[in-house]
Amino acid sequence: MEDPAPAAETIRITGRIEEFDYVRAQWLHLRPGRVMAIFGVLFLLMILAGGVVQLVGWARGDASASESLMLPFLFCVFLGYGALLTWRFKRSYRTYKAIQVPIDIEMSGNGFHAKSEHGESRLTWDMFRKYKESKRTLLLYQTAGLFHVLPKRLFRDAADVDRARELFARNVRSAT
Fold it and tell me: Which residues of 103-137 are buried (b: 16+ CB within 10 A; e: fewer)?
């Protein structure tokens, strides 16, 4: 891949996105923004308050058996939903053959260039709307639901991860 930018300005990622990378990327994608996180915390506080009221009622003998089962039921629903999502993410990865092959990505001030045995894509930075970051993953979004998975383990070193973050901050609309 040729890029007019100097080699020192080009960040190169080479490797294969593994199942665990894909699962982490999907969980990062689902991570709520600030407003939804506030609503989520308020919702959990309401459930917790309801649980306290139930426990007090149960201790007094005022709560029915069905009310006493609400908290364990909600806990199982949340736990089961998380397990179900993880299973679906893994299944999705296993059926998504294009993501399972080695990929070569170059990023520079000129844009983003990805290449694999299935094809290649050369995009300018104005094609991206945002990026997200976790401890192990960067996601680079073209739309709200279409993103490129960039596992940090595929970067040459931590300095390249920092340079990619700076490149995104300069060229992509927002970080979330």
Answer: bebbbbebbbbbbbeeeeeeeebeebebbbbeeeb
Hey, where are the domains in the chain?
A: 7-16+101-175, 31-95
Q: What is the CATH number of domain 7-16+101-175?
A: 2.30.29
Q: Which residue type does 107 have?
A: M
Block means of pLDDT (10 residues each) for the chain, 176 residues, are 55 96 95 77 78 72 63 74 90 95 96 96 95 96 95 96 95 73
Q: CB-based contacts of 137: which residues, under 8 Å, 6+ apart?
A: 21, 24, 25, 28, 149, 150, 151, 152
